[in-house]
Amino acid sequence: MGDLIPLFPLGSPLFPGIVLPLQVFEPRYRALVRDLLAQPEDGDGRFFGVVAIRQGWEVERVAPAQALYDVGCTAHLQTVRPQPDGGFRLTTVGGDRFRLLDVLVGGDDEDEDGTPYLRAEVEWLAEEEAAEEAAGDQEVGSSPPGGGPDEGLVAEVARGSLDVLERGVGSLFTRYVSAVASLQTGGAETAVAGDAQDLEGTDALLDVVDGDARALSYLVASAALLTTEDRQALLAESATRRRLVAETRMLRRELTLLRTVGAVPAPLQQFAGPTSLN
């Protein structure tokens, strides 16, 4: 059995370290916020899990295993502003990644435990950087005298290649943001299919994450106008190195599309039927 956490399905995944504002309308999620506010303010219990919706919007009416992606990220409350109508405006920030093991569905009003919102049993997913570094150190340490690389060479090469990847993705993303901005002001013959406003301010954010390859990888994954499927694949990737490699391919693909088609992908949810208030 995994840990039991509240669940909040959304149209796109959340990434560690990324700020997510939310406006909560539905009664069941108002109850979720009230339950979180009942937790000690100085404790670590004021969070819920965000998972992307794979199909449909009324998740409770279909099998959650089919309706939801299986990898999500926790959202930790930063600010809560109650609204006159009983709803809430939230500011949250992405925390830890997890994998769904099982989803518990509440009833129309509340389930037998008095919980009207979704909950999930989850297992926590660790980043692989520490394991990769340890494996590299072990490889160096086990090299026979005179027959292997110099002490620390493997780790140095690994760090160097990560730095190269980081610089490459940062450069590609800067070009990508510039290309999208050009389309926004390029007239009626070109179009940006998606919320291009998500890219505003990313130049400043690139300065903030400078030197932090993991943070850069999550910034690009959240800010680039990718499909939900692409974003989900990046969230499910546990190693920064592999995530940056995948983003290199995706950004090159998107730059080619911007040049030849004059558009970026729109999430399929944009064309879906009626959605929930949240």
From TrEMBL:
PROSITE patterns: LON_N. Gene3D superfamilies: 1.20.58.1480, LON domain-like. It holds the Pfam family LON_substr_bdg. Coiled coil: none annotated. Residues 128-152 are annotated as: Disordered. Residues 2-255 form the Lon N-terminal domain. This is LON peptidase substrate-binding domain-containing protein. It comes from Geodermatophilus arenarius.
